[in-house]
């Protein structure tokens, strides 16, 4: 999504390397973001793809209004931050599409989100921090425990509680 030259000052002069930001997704609830720096552009891109595939995370999707059809938007308001960039994703009605910057649109499409309102603050021109903030927001969709994820669990009682009646009745001494 972005390739930028970065420089390091050395005694002999400046050493230029290339930094690649790569996003991968299956358009169905998974997204990964990789960052790689290398001497050549192709090597940086190749390494970025590997790093992105290794950082795949699930993205929870939800509904706005009635629950007809497939989930199409983010389940609740979520936000992510990286550097000075703060990104907020807000659920939107079906058919709204993604309202936001081109970088946001591309990443939300990779994640399989079809409708979403977005808001961003800070220096979004630094595309790397912007992408990392969007990734943090998408990653936090599974951070909230909503009522549809509540489950009834039947725990087995601990052995102390299970055999407490037997231990209370028995007065004989047991040698081991």
TrEMBL record:
<keyword id="KW-0687">Ribonucleoprotein</keyword>
<dbReference type="Pfam" id="PF03719">
    <property type="entry name" value="Ribosomal_S5_C"/>
</dbReference>
<keyword id="KW-0689">Ribosomal protein</keyword>
<dbReference type="Pfam" id="PF00333">
    <property type="entry name" value="Ribosomal_S5"/>
</dbReference>
<dbReference type="InterPro" id="IPR013810">
    <property type="entry name" value="Ribosomal_uS5_N"/>
</dbReference>
<dbReference type="InterPro" id="IPR005711">
    <property type="entry name" value="Ribosomal_uS5_euk/arc"/>
</dbReference>
<comment type="similarity">
    <text>Belongs to the universal ribosomal protein uS5 family.</text>
</comment>
<protein>
    <recommendedName>
        <fullName>Small ribosomal subunit protein uS5</fullName>
    </recommendedName>
</protein>
<dbReference type="GO" id="GO:0022627">
    <property type="term" value="C:cytosolic small ribosomal subunit"/>
</dbReference>
<dbReference type="InterPro" id="IPR005324">
    <property type="entry name" value="Ribosomal_uS5_C"/>
</dbReference>
<dbReference type="InterPro" id="IPR000851">
    <property type="entry name" value="Ribosomal_uS5"/>
</dbReference>
<dbReference type="InterPro" id="IPR020568">
    <property type="entry name" value="Ribosomal_Su5_D2-typ_SF"/>
</dbReference>
<dbReference type="InterPro" id="IPR018192">
    <property type="entry name" value="Ribosomal_uS5_N_CS"/>
</dbReference>
<dbReference type="GO" id="GO:0006412">
    <property type="term" value="P:translation"/>
</dbReference>
<dbReference type="GO" id="GO:0003723">
    <property type="term" value="F:RNA binding"/>
</dbReference>
<dbReference type="GO" id="GO:0003735">
    <property type="term" value="F:structural constituent of ribosome"/>
</dbReference>
<feature type="domain" description="S5 DRBM">
    <location>
        <begin position="1"/>
        <end position="59"/>
    </location>
</feature>
<dbReference type="InterPro" id="IPR014721">
    <property type="entry name" value="Ribsml_uS5_D2-typ_fold_subgr"/>
</dbReference>
